[in-house]
Every structure is written in structure tokens, then in C-alpha cells.
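Data availability excerpt. The first of two example chains:
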Amino acid sequence: MDFNPVLLEVFKNRLSSIAEEMGVVLYRTAFSPNIKERRDFSCALFQGDGELIAQAAHIPVHLGSMPMSVKAILQNIKLHEGDMAFLNDPFQGGTHLPDITIVAPVFTGNGAADFFVACRAHHSDVGGMAAGSMPLATSIFQEGLIIPPVKIVRKGEIIEDVMNIVLRNVRTPEERKGDFASQIMANNVGIKRLAEVTKKYGLETVKFYSQKLIDYAEEMTRVTIRRIPDGVYEYIDYLDDDGQGTEDIPLEVKITIFDDEMEIDFQKSSQEVAGGVNAVYAITVSAVLYVISALGEERIPKNSGCLRPLRIVTQSGSVLHAEFPAAVAAGNVETSQRIVDVLLGALSRALPEIIPAASQGTMNNVTIGGWDGFRNIHFTYYETIGGGTGASKEEDGANALHSHMTNTMNTPAEALEFDYPLRVESYHVRRGSGGTGNRRGGDGIVRELRLLTDAHVNVLSERRKYPPYGLSGGEPGSPGKNIIIRDGQEMIKPGKFSASLLKGDILRIETPGGGGFGKKQ
């Protein structure tokens, strides 16, 4: 088939728009505020062999892990027309247990699945030792229900026996049931739209340009790498702690650039730790892909081609390549952010004019759960909180944003107070928290939540000890703070803590500011 570059652009936008439309369906029909308000999900399209074709501009941390989930399902389950399967097992392509992926095949009449569609959404509770399923655990068994690849839909109908097992193991079954239905509807839209594209252009043409898109992403990635001077660039930074007594956990990278290829070696990083900051390999891959795609002067299509010029080297059983049954809840959210910091720190030595200072380096995860006496149901609230972004040579950092591996929105105060027995006492920019310099780092956020009922709180956060670094003489951003206020008395809490709070208590989260860039003139 003759190649037409105009058609390549058509398919690039047409296929990514299908993934975007899936996302619109998901957040407009979801039950939980975490999905419908914060949009904590991703949608994507895959070839029949499981290779990623297109992913919507949703959550970067899902970029490298979604294909692994699809391939795990294909290796374990035969999906027929009208079937769907799901999983959340971090050691089979998942990230952490609250992220549940549902995969569906797309048939066009030739007997085998020609494509797959998938969506991953963060469910606010999947069981485990603490409401919200983001506990200070020492084993994945404490973090929630582990779902291996298993069918959830057969011939268009939900398999009730499987669904009942899941719903029996969570604190908010009705909310979970509604969110699962939304994911299934999103996949159905993806199936419908892919069938329409195939009918219009023909299966052979769609497959041809799907492969060309993957090849195009590879070439764009190689062009991006060629712009980096050949050499070896190293950097080391430290996780604050694992919440279980281990502190100063090293994350170290050695990046080797040779022409249009890049080796990213993490083997000197820490071994696994007891607490849940361990990241599975899929998380490490996602962080690398995010950084490389962000370096592109033009937008690189998000698909499997981006991986071809890269060699990612990790040590099995390490904090960046955890093995079953390690605790991993915070690896997805906290460690992924710190991997980005380490990668950018190394690349700043190759591209000092381009790479910005460190952003907040955390997602500031807050989960609150208990009994809602107003509605007579259990509730689980989950949210990540934005912060300051790092300054660059050209611009100050931005204030109060989600950055890097997260791309979620906030839960509006009105929605939060409507759905949960919580009151937003304060929500504002944390002025002066950005690092100073010729360009100033962005400021973080202050968020205060008053509990209107007794409840249990878990916080997983980073950059409470090691501040976001500045570059080229810029000062670091201010580290974050976690505070409980009871009867007017403030109690400073560590970066990772679990506590039973009383009605009237206030949880105050002060998020880090970004690092500054350049010496202040």
C-alpha cells in the first residue's frame, strides 16, 4: 500500500480522538468524584497484538503500563466478541490496586480481534486495611483486592458472580458498580468508533496506518534523542522515607546517549523496602516515556514506537522494579514523581538551557474514610493535591498545578462537600513556597479539610524532607507539611502517616513549591 503522509495525520488525530471520546463518556457517566470530577483515568487503543496505537492526553503514569495490562490479558484469556476482561494486579501490568483496567476486543468480521480498546480508572476503594486502599502497608495483601486477568463481561452481559466478589470486598460497592459500568460504556464507544473508521477506510488501510503511526512515533523519539549531546549523565536523589522506618532511599540513574538511542540504567537505586514506595517496572517505564515525550519539540504520538530507541535497565527486586508481594501503593503516585525528578536532574547536565528545576515531586495523596451518618453509608474520599512547578531559564514556575506523572484536576469544594462529610475550611496558594532565583519556582497549595464525622485518614506524600531542587544557582522550593489541628493545637505529622481523627479535627496539607532557576539578579 502506498504511504500518504496526509492520511497519517488524519489517522493520528482520528484514533486519538476516539480515545478522547472514550474519556468523555467515562467521566460524564462515572459515580465517584475521583473519576467524574478529578478525571483520574486513561483510555487507549491497541493493535490486535496488544501494541499501543493511541492514548488520550490523560494520565502520564499510565502511558507505559496500559500496554502491559493488555498483553497480560491476551496471554491469559481468550476474548470473544462482546467480552471484556479486567485486572489491577501491579505485577501483571497494573500500577497499584486502585487502578483497574478493563479491556475489550474489536472484531471486524475476519475471525480474530483486529484491535483492542482499554480504559484504566482509579477506584476510590478496592478493600484492604484502610479506606481508600492507599495504606501504610508492608505487603500488597494489605492494600486491597488483587484482581488477576479475568473476564468481567461475556457476550455483552456483566458476569455477576465475578462482580459480586469484587463488590463484597470494597467499602463502597454502589459507587464501584457505577464506575465499572462507566468504564464498560467507554469501551463500547471505543468499539463503535473503531468499527466506523474501519468501515469507512477499510481494515487493511486502518491497520497499515496504525503501524505507520507506531513507526512515526519511533522516528520522532529518535529525533528527540539526537538533539541530546552524546555522553553519560548521572544523577542521584533520595525518597524521604517509606513510612515504615527506612529513610533516605536512593534513586540513581545513569543515562547514556549514543546518536539516536538512549540507555537508562537504574541499577544503583535502592533495593525494595518494607513500605509501599516500591514501584513496579511498568511505573518506571511510564516515567521514562513521559520525560522523553516531554522533550520533543513537536508532540510525539503516545504509542509503542516511543519505546524502541530506549533501553531501560533495572534490577529485579529493587525499589524501581518491585517483585510480588511487595507493597506498592505509593510507588505509582510518589515514586513515579521522584523518578521524573532524577531523570530531569541527569538530563539538566546535557541540556542546561532546556530542563526546568524540580516541580513539587509528590502527589500529596489523601484518603479519608468512615461512616457517613448523614447518608447512612460508608464513604471513602481520595484526592491528590497539586503544587508548584519548577522554573526554567525562560519562565517562572506555575502555581498550584498538578505536574508530571499526574494530569488530574482538583475536586471542587462544592462537589467535595456535597459527596462527603467534610468541609473545606481553606484552599489557597501557598505564597512564597517557590524557590527563588532569576526565575522563581511556582508556589504550592494549602488545603484544610474539617471532618464532620469521626474518620480514618491516610496521607502518602514526599518532599517533606528533601525539597524540590533548583538549577543553575536557583534555590530549592519549600518542602511540604502535613498538619492535624485539634482544638486549635497543631500537630506536625510525617510525610506518610495514618491516624484516626475525630469530628471537628482539621487536616491541613501544605504542598511543596517548585525549584528556582538561575541566580537571583
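And the second chain:
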Amino acid sequence: MHDRDVKPGESDAPVPPAIEEIRYRRDAAKRMGGEEAVSRQHANGRLTVRERIERLTDASSFREVGTLTGSGEYDENHRLVSVKPAPYVAGTARIDGRPVAIGGEDFTVRGGTSFGALRRKGGQGGFIEDLAHHYKIPLVNLIDGAGGTVTSVKRRGYIAFPGVDGFERSVQLLGEVPVVSAVMGTAAGGPAGRAILSHFSVMVRGTSQVFAAGPPVVKRSLGKDIDKEALGGAAIAVDKAGTIHNAADSEDEAFAQIRRFLSYMPQNAWEMAPSVDCDDPVDRCEDALLDIVPAQRTRPYAMHDLVSLVFDRGSLFEIQPTHGRSVITTLARLDGRPVGVIANNPKVYSGAMDAASARKQIHFMELCDAFHIPLVFLVDVPGFMVGLKAEQEATLREGMRAVYVAGQLTVPTITVVIRKCYGMAGMATCNKNDIDLKIAWPSGEWGSLPVEGGVAAAFRREIAAAPDPKAREAELEAELRALASPFRTAEAFAVEEIIDPRETRPVLCDYIALAQTRLKTGLGPKAKFGVSP
């Protein structure tokens, strides 16, 4: 890491004692918890916080704040003998040339737990969050600590009420600047909560864990032995629960994901997301789109392939790829302009919305809305997931939350119906408060519910009374399916346009260019609501 201290030999002038003391204290801070503690951190497959900052940020850009914070030991003459640095490192830096506020626990010093200063550098509230708020720059949290400890009771002399070090600023920042959290070690309590109060979070498979409370508390509370990886490793926190958005196979890969995410984001909610130069032709029309949707309506296809054929080559950055997999949420670009893409995945539950995918879609819609990123829906949703498990997981409630959030969006939205768009889940792909632009492929179909299930319910008695119930059911389905042609809907201007699938990219590029102009003229003086945890 670049050392901004004045180097010995740079001047022949004598060094005053106070300057020597600054140098001594800074050197102590850079030694962190000492050689043995640093070696243990490396042996556990983890970098130190200073190494993390160095690898994530632009070379020589880190300007540390609070280098002298810590606990000094003095002799009987009040002369400094040694310094134990604070277990948190923070400051400003640049990532791809853009300024950020950055901080993280130093696990080599007391496991990254707070040491009780009057003002915190960071960790939960504190200076680094204030810096991001007042200067309106992104905040990057490198989390590697267990939060509070009962030893603080002895130091303080009483038990503090919850919220002394609260999340007020953390919550406020969600509507102001991009907030990124990387869980780099074992996070519990406050640090774990802060990881969730983020627009984007990432953890490292095998060396990172996150939970409300760790194995000792679980053992004491429930009498169950469980190791920290089984309790809060990436297989649980990312893949199953969706507590953390993405997983990486190494710390360096996690840093790459952070840089990639921030590249789509503006500096704050009062600015536009940055566009980039693009050499992918706007009028690129892929013949592969003509037959990507199978003629048999119940057969799945690769929505990921479809997305890659439409948006700028190499521009996709998927968020939560292993959780809520019946919907795909990815940042992308069209002619260099950032967009958010929400696409149903027919390979998982036929694209039906379950509770997990609803929560995933909600977070992504709120993220894009907070930072003025237009949304493109690629729709193939047969409805909400049904059945006992779906009801137990409150799919209807979570799905209706998605409908509610979609109806509150302030960014331009474009709906492209690829195949199915049914029921209330279909409503969550449209914004009736916007221009409600709906484009369809010829394979598109829509309604309150699919013809098959609808016929069985609406004509139940007639079907049962028929000499051949199955034949009568098939006849009724054929009658209604003929009326369900997307071209009949287009005749009534109930869908704005039906396009050749190959036209999807040029059409979207044109509308996103208009959307960006609209957004530039409509930026208000206040931040959006932000993102709910």
C-alpha cells in the first residue's frame, strides 16, 4: 500500500519529537495485531484488512483516517511505551478512478470487536458512514468482525440498551449512495446486520460466514452443535436464504465483483449512472432469437442465452444468480447505457414466481429505482407458484409485495413478453403508473390464468357432463386459445407492439436512449426511498 508518510532522508532538517511520535504511532497501526496474529489470519485463508483495501482500490489512492486511534500504554513518566491500534481501518480511496469511502474490521486486533472509543471510525455507524453521507460517495464495507461482546459490560459498568450504536445512518445511506458490503470472515451481530443493509453484498465460499449469532450461542440456546460453515456459509447465506447476494471463490474475485457492481452505479442518488463507449452495433439482429422459444409451449429454454443475445456483449452482471432462480436479475447495458434486466427463467418452476424470487425481484427493482437505472422485463411467467409449500412460504404475500413495488417505480420500464404473462405475477412486470410500454414476441400469450387451468376451473360441470370429458376439455381449450392470439390483442392496442424477435435489441436501444434523456431532465432534489433489507 502506498505510504503517504514523509520518508527519512527526504530532508536534512531535524525531525521534531512530535513528528517522530506520529511516525511511531502510524508504524504501530500498520503492524496491526502483530506478526503472529497476521500469520494466523493468512493461515485461515484470509487477507488482512490493509491487504484487502490495497487489492480492491486504485494504486496509491487510499487516504487513511484515524491512523493514531487506539490504546496507548505509558510509563510512570507518561511516556509512550506501546500502542495497540483500533480494530478498524477506514478512509477514502478510488475504485476505477471514482472516490469511495471504505472501511473494515481488523480481525488481527481483538477479532475486529469495538474498543469503546467516544467516536467510532466505522463498523456500525461512525465516521466512515458520515463521510459517505456528507460527501455523497459510495460506501464499501469490508466486514470481518463479530460485533458486540459481553466484555464491554465490565468496561462500561452497565448493560447498554440496544441501539446505542444503531443503524440510523446505515438506513439513511440506502437512499443516498451505493452501499456495498463484503463479508470477508465470520460476521455476527451488528456487522452481519450491516451486511444486509447494502445494495450489494458478497462473501467468499469456504472462508466467510454470516449469521445472527454463532455456534456457541446456538449451542447455549438450542442445545445443538453446529459448525460455523454449516450455520452461515455461502451454501446457506447465499444459495438457500439469500441473506447475502453473491458468492465468490476467492477474496480477489469478491473484489472484482465489487468493482463490477460499482461500474453500473452513479456516485449518489442525485446523479445519473455512467454510460460507457460501446462497439456492439445497436442494429445487431440475431437470427438465433427466431427459434429460441420452443414451439411446444411447455418446453423450457435458456433465458440466459436469450438475454446475452440482446444486450451489449460482455455487459451482464447477475445479482443473486444462485438464489430465487425462477427469476434472473442482472445489470446490463444497451449501447453502453446501464439497464436493469428482470427475466423469468422457464428452466426453474417453469418461470413461476415463488417467495424467494419475489423478494429477489423486489430488491432489484428498488435498487434500480434508487439510482435511476431503467428496467427491462423479459417476461415468461405462468403466475405465482402454487401448492402447499408455496402457501407455507407466503408466496402470495411476497408476490403481491412485488406487484406493489412495481407499481411504485419511478424509472422508465419496458415490458417485453417473450412467452407467458399470466395473473398477478404478470402484473409485477408492468408499471401502470408509467407509460406502460408493452412489447410482445409472436410467441406471447397472457391473461388472468393459462387457458389449460382456466378451462378446467370455469367449465368444470360442462366437462364432467360430456360423454367424453377429456375431448370436451380439449375442444374448449382450442376455442379459447384461438381467441388468445397476441395479434387480436394488438388489434385492440391492448399490447403496444408485436415485433420480430430479432428486432428486440434495436427496439430496446432506442427506448433506453429516450429513457436516459427523460431521467436526466427529471432528477429531483431529493433521494429516492432506497432499498429495503
